[in-house]
Amino acid sequence: MESLSNKRKVLESKPLNLWERIYLPAVVKGLSITLKHFLFKKDVTVRYPEQKREFSENFRGMHSLKRDEEGRERCTACGLCALSCPAEAITMIAAERKPGEENLYREEKYAAVYEINMLRCIFCGLCEEACPKEAIYLDGDIVPADYLRKDFIYGKDKLVEAPLNQ
Amino acid sequence: MSIFYFIAFLSILFAVLVISAKNPVHSILYLVLTFFTFTIQYILLNAQFVAIVNFIVYMGAILVLFLYTLMLINLNKNSEPMKTNLVKIAAVLGGGCLLVVVVAALKATGASDPVLFKDPNLGLVKNLGKVLFDEFLLPFEISSLLLLSAMVGAVLLATKDTKTA
Amino acid sequence: METGELIVRLVLIVVIFLISLVIAMYSTYAERKIAAFFQDRVGPNRAGPAGILQPLADGAKMFLKEEIIPTNSSKFLFIVGPSLAIMTACIGSAVIPWGQQIQIGSKLYDLQVTDINVGLLYIFGVVSLGVYGIMIGGWASNNKYSLLGAIRAASQNISYEIAMGLSIIALLMVTNTLSLKEIAAQQHGWHWNILRQPFGFILFIVCAFAETNRTPFDLPECETELVGGYHTEYSSMKLGFYLFAEYINMFVSGAVMATLYWGSYNYPGMDWVAGHTGPVIAPLIGTVVLFAKIFLFIFFFMWVRWTIPRFRYDQLMDLGWKGLIPLAIANIIGTGLWITFFK
């Protein structure tokens, strides 16, 4: 059939000539190529745990729950992140702010428990987009490996940013 | 001398196991051991060249080929054809005849004097080569021709006939 | 044999045995490192500095792993297979001369376990026996892949043994002896056999690759086609023995090639060195030179492995029977003509 794109290339496979059939010259050529790699080429690998490759700007890693400029947690436990999550990795329990806790939580309602199952999370970043309070960002490192499934459910202890004045 | 008897006993033992083993592959492996004891016998006779050639050719090549073909064939009890009584009787008769001939031949020679080599180093490569290519040149060359013709015949049998195929 | 010589022999046997085991161990490390360098990687670097303890870790792993013997295998032969493989690999080094005669006290001792006058044929015999370990193991596993690997090993070894033997015959016509000690001594200084038999050497090294089952002739164990070939069913140290046997074979065939073609312990200017260092140091330098050559061969084995892809089975047979054997016969005829007219 006639090619419509005109990109088709017809390859000819000619029978090998004597020089090619001796096979040894081709072997020598191949050996010289591999030797070049052995002697001169720098290795392209990164020794990972010690050495890390820089993340790109839009890299999405572990989540962190942000604080505002006074060090108060921004999250108000509206549940939009959990709603938007396609993997249903986020759960939370809301609680009312008591008097005297104004320096801890920005809004009157806050998340008493906030859990992300890192085995379910697909790092799509929809929670980030859904959050009206700019409280959650996927700006962390790669989630580390672990032995037990239960250890992949990250609570507030691992997710909330460190307080400002410490 | 005691080494000889021990090795001879082993060769006979393994040879018996070759024909009594149920599994053909085991049988071949016993045959390998039998040939190995032969190699030791040759070394005891100071016939190094024959020993090593026996080692390379029989143990290293021919028996490997035996094993090779045996592994390709699915040999089990069901596929083995039953032998008729006629064949069995014929086999017994043939074996008996062979036994008679061998015993008669041994009896005719009688108790011969032990063979003494004029040169105990005859089995070494250098001496053997000189004898082979000097005294026995004609038989040697004829046997090589025989092998060549056998080889050509085998190739002829193996190649497909282009006309019929 | 008097006691002094007996002790030297025993020490030599133990030392050579240990050296071949250590070299086989570190060949596994070298293989991984060299493979990494060829592929622009780093290779093992966790166990010890630059991963130098990796072989020990691998060995410990091999010993500690679970031992599995398939239910429907023939158990005795299943154990015999790897034992035979490693035994035939180890006995090959018995006839190789590791150096010149060394002077201890006032006596001269050979650096060779035994000098039998059919040494070359002995090595050839041991090599031809090596296939039994693979065949028995592959058959006893009662596995199709193993059996196919074993069958390939058998046909490959037999085919390439012929070409190897023929290339050795051409060498024998030049050296006029089968004793490896004499062959080594003949190549004094720079009179290496490679200069007299360059073509024979190429044939020999191709066959050596096939006999040691190294790439591009690793059909008996190719993991892409036969899972693991003859050692598919093997685990733990039995598998370790098969892998070890391959590396020891590589070491021994490197030693054989160095001895037969690349001047053994000889090097240009050895007389001058011997005059300046005395009868103890000079042979040891020769031994070091021999080992350097062996290591170069091992490196070459690995270099080729990471360069050339595996042959197809029919290509393998074509190369063996239609390529190497006629060439080897031509080499014999050529050598014969050369001896008749120029000597």
Secondary structure blueprint with pairings:
The complex is a heterotrimer of chains A (166), B (165) and C (343).
Chain A: H1 18-22, H2 24-39, E1 64-65, H3 80-84, E2 90-96, E3 109-117, H4 126-130, E4 136-137, E5 153-154, H5 156-159
Antiparallel strand pairs in A: 1-4, 2-3, 3-5
Chain B: H1 2-20, H2 24-44, H3 48-72, H4 85-109, H5 125-134, H6 137-158
Chain C: H1 3-38, H2 54-64, H3 75-91, E1 102-104, E2 107-109, H4 119-140, H5 144-175, H6 180-186, H7 193-196, H8 198-211, H9 223-226, H10 236-260, H11 270-277, H12 281-305, H13 313-342
Antiparallel strand pairs in C: 1-2
Helix pairs in contact in C: 1-2, 1-10, 1-12, 2-10, 3-4, 3-10, 4-5, 5-8, 5-13, 8-13, 10-12, 11-12
Structural write-up:
The complex is a heterotrimer of chains A (166), B (165) and C (343). With 166 residues, chain A is α+β, with helices and mostly antiparallel strands. Chain A has helices at 18-22, 24-39, 80-84, 126-130, 156-159, and strands at 64-65, 90-96, 109-117, 136-137, 153-154. The radius of gyration of chain A is 28 Å and the shape is elongated. In chain A, 14% of the residues are buried. The model of chain A has no long low-confidence stretch (mean pLDDT 86). The model of chain B has no long low-confidence stretch (mean pLDDT 82). In chain B, 74% of the residues lie in helices and 0% in strands. By secondary structure, chain B is mostly helical. A two-stranded antiparallel ribbon of chain C has the order 1-2. Chain C is built from 13 helices and 2 strands, in the order H-H-H-E-E-H-H-H-H-H-H-H-H-H-H. The model of chain C has no long low-confidence stretch (mean pLDDT 85).
Architecture (CATH level 2) name of the largest domain in chain B: Up-down Bundle
Low-confidence stretches of chain B: none
Helix tally of chain B?
6
The portion of residues forming beta strands of chain B comes to under 5%
Provide the helix percentage of chain A.
10-25%
Oligomeric state of the chains present here: heterotrimer
How many DSSP helices of chain A?
5
User: Could you please say which CATH topology of the domain at 64-159 in chain A applies here?
Assistant: Alpha-Beta Plaits
Overall geometry of chain B comes to: globular
Provide a brief overview of the structure.
The complex is a heterotrimer of chains A (166), B (165) and C (343). Chain A is 21% helix and 13% strand.
